Amino acid sequence: MNPKGVKPKSKITASRKLSLKMLLLTRACEDLERERQEREEEKVRYIGDKLPPLQLSGLPLDELQSLCKQLHSKIDVVDEERYDCESRVNKHNKDIHELKLKVMDLGGKFKKPALRKVRVSADEMMRALLGSKHKGSMDLRANLKSVKKEDVKTDKVLTGEVGDWRKNVEAMSGMEGRKKMFDTAGGPQ
Fold first, then answer.
1. H or E stretch covering 147
2. Long-range contacts for 50-59 (Cβ within 8 Å, ≥24 apart)?
């Protein structure tokens, strides 16, 4: 019921809005700090589970060597896992980049594919356009004017009199041909 262009007045005062914004920002900062502390605690817990504290004091040489071999094997396993994770992340990043490019291409100019010629009769075209509404056939040839054979014969007779054009050109070439043309053009007056 408000006319267009007129904003309804806010029921909250400017100072109240500012105080609410400040409360939201402080709450967000507290949440971020809590999340950071939780991540740190998770790291410490994970390292404690995967790598127990070493007791090196008072161990004979054989046990120290076996401990070193165990640590090397654990390091190899962790390196393999890290490499697999990195390769997966790189692959996913590459896929994301390709998909972004596709989206950009689709959003931009779309190149129309070259169309190929298709021979379709009028009936098939009407059936494709109208579907089941199309009734009857459109025989375009039936609407054409029919030509009688006698007309064709008279056309052949007329063209037969003209004959071969090369003979006419040879006959008209030279001075004699020009004289004939002059005589026939100026003939009976």
1. none
2. none
The pTM for the full model equals 0.35
Q: Look up residue 122 and give its two tokens.
A: 């009028």
Both tokens of residue 135? 């009734």
DSSP assignment string, 106-133: HHSPPPPPPP------HHHHHHHHHGGG
Give tens-digit pLDDT for 110-167. 667 788 887 877 777 777 777 766 666 666 666 676 666 665 556 555 555 555 666 6
> Taken in order 59, 63, 66, 70, is the CA torsion positive or negative?
negative
Backbone phi and psi for residue 81, each to the nearest 5 degrees, phi listed first = -60, -45
Name the 3-class secondary structure at 133: helix
**144: Cβ–Cβ under 8 A, 6 or more apart, which residues?**
none
140 and 122 Cβ atoms separated by less than 8 Å: yes
Of 46, 64, 65, give the one whose Cα is nearest residue 55: 64
Percent of the chain past pLDDT 90, that is, above it, reads 32
Q: Which residue has the tokens 């009734």?
A: 135
